[in-house]
Design a protein that fits this description.
It comes from Dorea longicatena. The protein is α+β, with helices and mostly antiparallel strands. It has three helices and six strands; from the N terminus they run αββααββββ. The strands form three sheets. A two-stranded antiparallel sheet has the order 1-2. A two-stranded antiparallel sheet has the order 3-6. Strands 4-5 form a two-stranded antiparallel sheet.
Length: about 180
């Protein structure tokens, strides 16, 4: 199967689908990643923006993103060369949020800590990512350059709640500013 799966081709296919009045296409830009040695692909496109994360809102977003997937499949069949016979075989088990809530920690990881690969005395983990800026749901993330190809420390204080004793956070909930996150 010869397919053009570049972000530009995906964007053009979605634009054509929108002009043809295919609904529920929330983003024009995204990725289609082909699995090596296979005809399987993973699509990173459907998007929703949470506001408060009540159980009702989460349920609505789960349903909405699954609906979006079906419309993207239709758009790809019609407008993305080589995807005319594509089939949906799997959807992620649950919606994934990049960012929702974080604790206010005893310390906070800041953009400059990540960019300058800051090391600290109370480091309990290491981070090695480049900051991603997600300003618009219809645009690709912008990646910021870092000082060097190295790592930075994640301090214990970024995991410890500033005002609730013995409460620690992990993963997406640690104390970090929007850019460092």
């Amino acid at each position: 199967m010869s397919c053009d799966l570049t972000p530009e081709a995906v964007e053009q296919a979605v634009i054509k689908a929108k002009k043809a009045r295919i609904q529920h296409l929330t983003r024009e830009k995204g990725f289609i990643l082909k699995r090596e040695g296979s005809n399987q692909v993973a699509v990173l496109l459907p998007s929703v923006m949470p506001t408060g994360l009540s159980s009702q809102e989460l349920t609505k977003m789960e349903l909405d993103t699954r609906r979006q997937v079906l419309y993207y499949v239709e758009a790809f069949r019609r407008y993305l060369k080589g995807m005319e016979q594509c089939e949906l075989t799997m959807i992620g088990p649950s919606i994934g949020f990049r960012e929702t809530r974080r604790i206010k920690g005893k310390s906070m990881i800041k953009a400059e800590d990540v960019l300058n690969r800051k090391k600290c005395e109370d480091g309990v983990a290491r981070g090695g990512w480049k900051p991603e800026i997600h300003k618009d749901t219809d645009k690709m993330a912008t990646y910021m350059d870092v000082k060097e190809e190295s790592w930075f420390d994640i301090p214990l204080g970024a995991l410890q709640s500033d005002n609730i004793g013995n409460l620690y956070a992990a993963g997406r909930m640690i104390s970090a500013d929007e850019t460092a996150f």
